[in-house]
Amino acid sequence: MTKGGRVGVVAALVVAAGAIVFLAVGGLGKNLVYYWSPTELLDYAKRPEAARDAERAAVVRLGGEVKPGSIVHGDGASDLTFVITDGAAEVKVHSTAVPPQMFREGIGVVVEGRLGPDGVFRSEQLMVKHGNDYRPPKDGEKPDWKPEDGSPVL
Amino acid sequence: MDGVILGGWEWVAAAWGVSLGIFVTYAVVLEVRLRRARGRDGAAGQEGAR
Amino acid sequence: MSGALKRVAWEHWVGLAGLVLLGIGSYVGLVEAPPERYMGEVGRILYIHVPTAWIALLTLTVAAVAAGMWLWKRRPGWDDVQVGCVEVGIILVAMLLVQGSTWARPTWGVFWTWDPRLTTAAILLLAFIAVLALRAFVDDAYRRATWTAVATLVAAVDVPIVYYSVKWWRTLHQDFSSPETVAGSMTLPLRINAFALLFLATWLVARRARLARLKRGTRVLEPPKRSALVAGE
């Protein structure tokens, strides 16, 4: 084997082993949390490190259910205000991201942004979580279904 | 609707088309590699020789 | 070989069966099955995405089994199967990520996010690409098989992690689906396409293993002594 080959072998092994070590002990350990619930976010906001993170403008993810009846449209389709709830706590969210068609009341969402001093979570990234159930449309329903009470899906 | 990310058939076509395109490309490259290997190795390369 | 009835390699029949099944499964999924209630037509991507995921993880599991068998039995055929499964597994995971992104953009709103399922799947792809990179650097056939096997076993640790990521951690990606969570009219294309991809993957693995055997020729793999180097791939 050439010297260059040996270096390559070592490099490739390091990459493979590094990936696994990263998985085992790094960011993806039991502590990995993809998003915080409203309860967790509000708890965190009370702790001293929240102020430090705010100075660094740290972005966090907040996930939960869109509270029914809380969606308010501002200027344009992408200017949205709604409340995310986990049943126990609620956080008001102002989002400027273009929502996907699935966005509606009662659906799970994850938003990326920061909790402002006024208690409003400002987000520029809105993601809709799809559950694991898949159903055909009900009789007479169009596939792109809207709530029956006529509340805007948008 | 304005200002919404809409889904439709074009996404379905893209998912099917691009992913199966990757599959077909690999399959074609594999057959070319097999042909080349046979050309080099002569008798040993005959299909079903073993 | 030169008879009127030219012998066709067995794997081509498996591939043909896979192709026919994929045609039927895609027809059922794209035409017969209803659109999903909330996702609409985009939900049909899952008829190819979910079977691809199953078969990708299965292929990489078989790669790990072949790696273990090589280390145990030292029969060169296991190295052929191992490299076939690793290469085809990489192709399947690449297909999986493309399908997932195309589904995620209109459904979630983003092509990609670093949630645990997506992150571990990306690591899976990179880890097995690293296995192939390692393999390309080893000239001696016996050592190459052994190093590949060890690296494959290391990379395969990620396979169950990818599978259970949606159970272990909070993800944007949905949890496992089961017959209870999927309407009856939607399970048929999933099942047909799963068998289609199983056959198609088997076809490619067999072709790749045949290529490895051709390159090896009639030589027997032996542990390298002092100068028993054989030509590399």
Describe it.
The complex is a heterotrimer of chains A (154), B (50) and C (233). With 154 residues, chain A is an alpha+beta fold. Chain A folds into two domains: 1-30; 38-129, Nucleic acid-binding proteins (OB fold (Dihydrolipoamide Acetyltransferase, E2P), Beta Barrel). Chain A has helices spanning 3-25, 38-46, 48-55, and strands spanning 60-66, 72-73, 80-85, 90-95, 108-115, 120-129. In chain A, a hairpin with a 6-residue loop joins strand 2 (72-73) and strand 3. The radius of gyration of chain A is 21 Å and the shape is extended. Chain B has a domain at 12-38. Helices cover 66% and strands 0% of the residues of chain B. The N and C termini of chain B lie far apart (63 Å). In chain B, 20% of the residues are buried. Chain C has one domain: Up-down Bundle (Four Helix Bundle (Hemerythrin (Met), subunit A)). Chains A and C meet through helix 1 and strand 6 of A and helix 3, helix 4, helix 5 and helix 6 of C.
What's the number of extended β-strand segments of chain C?
0
The average pLDDT of chain C is: 90
Number of helices of chain B: 1
- Please describe the biggest sheet of chain C, giving its number of strands, its sense, and whether it closes into a barrel: none
Overall helicity of chain B = 55-70%
Query: In one word, what is the shape of chain B?
Result: rod-shaped
Q: What profile does the largest beta sheet of chain B have? A: none
Mean pLDDT of chain B: 80
**Tally of contiguous helical segments of chain C:** 7
Domain tally of chain C: 1
Whole-Å distance between the termini of chain B? 63 Å
| Multimerization state | heterotrimer
CATH third-tier fold name of chain C:
Four Helix Bundle (Hemerythrin (Met), subunit A)
Tell how many strands the DSSP assignment of chain B holds.
0
The residue fraction in helices of chain C comes out at over 70%
Backbone structural class of chain B: mainly alpha
